[in-house]
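Final report, Chapter 2: Outcomes

The project's central promise was a pipeline that accepts a single protein chain and returns its three-dimensional structure in a standardized token representation, suitable for archiving and comparison. That pipeline is now operational. To close this chapter, we reproduce one record exactly as it appears in the project archive, with the input sequence first and the structure output second.
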Amino acid sequence: MARSSSYNTRQKEHILSILRENSSRHITAGILALCLQEHGTPVGIATIYRYLDQLADEGIIRKYTIDSKTGACYQYIGERHNCSEHFHLKCVKCEKLFHVECDYLSELGTHILAHHGFQVDHTKTVLYGWCKNCREDEN
């Protein structure tokens, strides 16, 4: 039994390592499985989901669910537990995720609450577009 527990810990560390290396991106369980396979450490998809749920419960990663039709994606947040206080921008080309602390956007959230009675959940708020680098690459 101890060997199995050690093996599970190593699997969890491999998963966490890949999430850390990709902390600027949202990663799906499928992409994570491919990365693990490429690193020579294949892990079953059920095990990956179990560890992702555990890491999310521990507050190490954040789980994003856009809608009921799209699979969840995950992001390593480490010490950035303040993701509920700012907006996120995601590039549709390179898929990089930007954490944006901006007074103007904060005022937008305040405006929406004051004038529309709706409180924005910043952990689920992602604005999609093209980052500066991808726009420059297109030109």
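Archive annotation: The two ends are 58 Å apart (CA to CA).
This record, like all others produced under the grant, will remain available to the consortium after the project formally closes.
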